[in-house]
Amino acid sequence: MIEHHVRVHPSADRLPREEQLAWKLAIVATGTEELAPDSAAMAVNRVIDNASVAVASLLRRPVAVARAQAAAHRAPRRGASVFGAPHRITPEWATWANGTAVRELDYHDTYLAADYSHPGDNIPPLLAVAQHTGRTGADLLRAVVAAYEIHVALVKGICLHEHRIDHVAHLGAATACGLGALLRLPTETVHQAVQQTVHTTTSTRQSRKGEISSWKAYAPAFAGKAAIEAVDRAMRGETSPSPIYEGEDGFLARMLDGPGSDYTVWLPEPGEPRRAILDTYTKEHSAEYQAQAVIDLARRLREKTPLDKVRSVVLHTSHHTHHVIGSGANDPQKYDPTASRETLDHSVPYILAVALEDGTWHHERSYAPERARRPETVALWRKVTTVEDPEWTRRYHDPDPGRRAFGGRAVITLEDGTVIEDELAVADAHPAGARPFDRAAYAGKFRTLTENSVAPAAQDRFLAAAEHLAELSAPDLDGLFPAVDTGAVAEYDACLPKGLF
Fold first, then answer.
1. Which of 96, 180, 219, 335 has the smallest number of CB atoms closer than 10 Å to its CB?
2. Residue 445 pLDDT class (50, 70, 90 cuts)
3. Distance (Å, rounded) from C-alpha 337 to C-alpha 73?
């Protein structure tokens, strides 16, 4: 790996493009060739995972709205498929619909380091453009692995959250790079596309604060759509604000650490295998990633905790967990029984209370309004708080992925003073967990989430296509969209209010 120092430069420096981070990212993307077998296999897993959660969300309102908006943009040639829709759409609008479907349930992959990310959000735009441009499964695999490489490097090196900048700013850059790898574009074209995308997809984290709205699902799709449009403009010879990261009025200087910004980003050397995708992990439970281990921990604690005698529950955890989804966020909405699903899946007090009561987690039942408003649940929920523990924060940021911890220690105090406690460092499904997700687990998740909407034979066809992704021809990419009952989807869509399109 090569260590790159990224800092702010005044315009008078005329920073050469070869010294700009966006150029270095583009070099890695356009230099992605032969893939390590384990990286390619993990990319297949994530294609399966994305389809699982996308199909499971088709009859949810934000997804239906995105699909309705996309439907007005049928492709005059080729185009791309949309989950649950009968017609092919222009690739940027197909990305809008599919990206929203993938993100809606907060149930696909994650990578946490200096910042947060859902690298699987790169896949919808890459798949859409692959279909539209007639690329093969091997081309798509190369693009996915390249995008993950860039995304993980940025998340490791540059923290956005401390400045309350939303993490999709890193996603946009990664997607632009993945598109460059997919289309085998010149490095200069990718360089310009990365800069345009970063410039247009930087937004605040208010989308994940307080009363969290449906925009949380739309934000990654917006970034993917913007990346496609930026690549299109760059291919036509248009340039971008440059240097977008290092400029004196650029991303680092005005959005992050200011004129004194100094970040380190590690990128692979030429010819070095792209293995960053192997550092990422998916979710067994439909909730914010920092809650994954908490759900598994609650299942263990439930067996020895008389819930009607609980006085308090305190989760000792990392800075990120405490301040983002814990009581340290100081969001009263995290304790509100009428809060939106998007808010509840970012409330570890709610998640811990329900998991203690139910001993399980379900992507729909656990968030149902009647579930959240159950009196005994509300009573337990309001006894749950979080505190930051410096040791858990240190473990959260451990440079060794094998020692990194995203869980915490739960201390339950009963009315008679009895203390019950236990801890869990990583979720059971994490690569270092008790039951790491393997191909069979990804296939099982797909079958479970699609059992009511995809016939068993269609499930088999999809899994066969995904598992042979490297051998798929361009027309065969259609097989990555499981056949669903489009009549039921159309009936749901017909009930939506009309918009402009």
1. 335
2. very high
3. 39
